[in-house]
Design goal:
Structural class: alpha/beta
CATH topology of the largest domain: Aminoglycoside 3'-phosphotransferase, Chain: A, domain 2
Number of domains: 3
Largest sheet: 6 strands, mixed
Shape: elongated
Order of helices and strands: EHEHEHEEEEEHEEEHHHEEEEHHHHH
Number of helices: 12
CATH class of the largest domain: Alpha Beta
Strand order of the largest sheet: 5-9-10-8-7-6
CATH superfamily of the largest domain: Aminoglycoside phosphotransferase (APH), C-terminal lobe
């Protein structure tokens, strides 16, 4: 049985014996896990630490949650954080009146001030994802991926968020209002993608994007005939595994401009694989998700489809400037297969099947995949 003990005020030499008796009066042989909730604890002395240590020795599975910064520091200085789980209380902030400067599938990014932004997650159990993404951001930064590192996890109403330092960073949508600035952004995107793709990591450090895409096929099995499923799995498998780092969700809502550098603000999709997967994810964001509802790019990216397509094409052509137009056309066919597979799987897993537009997206994607499977035997380029 799990038992939560709420600690309050101070635990020191004056009241330590009394507090100890009160705590252990609540614990019996049926208890297998003890959680000390320290949200309202202002100070803990060596006497209080001994009480926690006694519980640890007696029950084994003991943790401290919601420790205020001063209390957490005491646990850390005395070494308690090295042998038992101890978490800090989360700072609470408000985003009322804050500008939304970015948006992904799992959350939105708001500017708090000139120096900081917060990514607020819109899923119920976000803490696991936040911790994973912040750890990935630290790794990515050390590898040389241009990104910001989160320095705080906060509560935003009934949701959770991660705070990042982004000094005077600007949203891309505000920077591409002229032809000159648009081309400059696309050129910088090509440089950034090449920088990311120059990094290689071991297969233990990042998940395989190829395996993730194959999983998309199985997620969509409700709408795919067995023959089409088998062909999709086989054709995805023609793309060799690679240790190349991929962002896998590179679009204007996940990129900020800081000075003359692009910074990525979403590391959740970081993976490894062939660059075809990078461009497939970009194609789906900029083009494929608007296959039926042409307003999707305006709703999601804040730009019309014509501009969205132009951004993708400029980046794609710039990245593969050494290829002929005929070669790029063939590459684009292969990229589009994975792109529409992403549309299909996203709608199949997260879409409202009662929404006619969602079902039209699904049917369009299935028809497109059937057509392309009759034309292609490999996706490798």
């Amino acid at each position: 049985m799990e038992k939560v003990i709420r600690l309050e005020g101070r635990i020191d030499g004056v009241n330590g014996s009394k507090v100890e008796k009160e705590i252990f009066a609540q614990l019996d042989d049926s208890v297998t896990k003890v959680i000390f909730d320290a949200e309202k604890l202002n100070y803990i002395s060596s006497m209080g630490l001994r009480i926690v240590l006694r519980a640890k020795k007696q029950f084994g599975d003991v943790s401290v949650i919601n420790a205020q910064p001063e209390v957490y520091d005491i646990f850390e200085i005395t070494g308690y954080t090295s042998f038992m789980p101890i978490t800090k209380a989360l700072r609470e902030i408000s985003i009322e009146g804050c500008e939304k400067i970015g948006e992904g599938f799992f959350g939105s990014v708001y500017r708090l001030d000139d120096e900081t932004v917060v990514k607020v997650y819109n899923i119920p159990d976000a803490m696991k994802m936040i911790k994973r993404e912040t750890e990935l951001a630290k790794k990515a930064f050390m590898w040389g991926v241009p990104t910001a590192i989160s320095y705080d996890i906060v509560k935003v109403g009934d949701k959770f968020g991660a705070v990042y330092e982004l000094l005077h960073a600007k949203s891309i949508k505000d920077l591409i209002k002229s032809e000159k600035s648009l081309k400059a952004f696309c050129k910088k995107s090509v440089e950034t993608l090449r920088q990311i793709h120059s990094i290689e990591v071991s297969n233990q450090e990042l998940p395989s994007r190829r395996e993730q895409v194959i999983e998309m096929i199985y997620d969509s099995k409700e709408f795919l005939q067995h023959q089409l499923m088998d062909k999709l799995v086989r054709i995805i498998a023609t793309i060799p595994e690679s240790e190349t780092v991929l962002h896998s969700d590179f679009h204007i809502k996940n990129v900020m401009m800081q000075g003359d550098e692009l910074l990525l603000i979403d590391m959740e999709t970081l993976s490894r694989g062939h660059p075809i997967f990078e461009f497939a994810a970009m194609h789906s964001a900029y083009i494929a998700f608007a296959c039926v509802n042409k307003n999707n790019t305006m709703e999601f990216l804040g730009i019309p489809l014509e501009l969205s397509e132009k951004i993708f094409n400029l980046i794609f052509e710039g990245y593969y400037s050494d290829k002929t137009p005929e070669e790029r056309e063939d590459m684009l066919k292969k990229i589009s297969v994975i792109s529409y597979l992403k549309v299909l799987s996203t709608r199949a897993v997260y879409g409202d099947k009662m929404n006619p537009l969602i079902m039209q997206d699904i049917q369009y994607s299935v028809n497109y995949l059937e057509k392309m499977m009759n034309q292609l035997d490999t996706l490798y380029y």
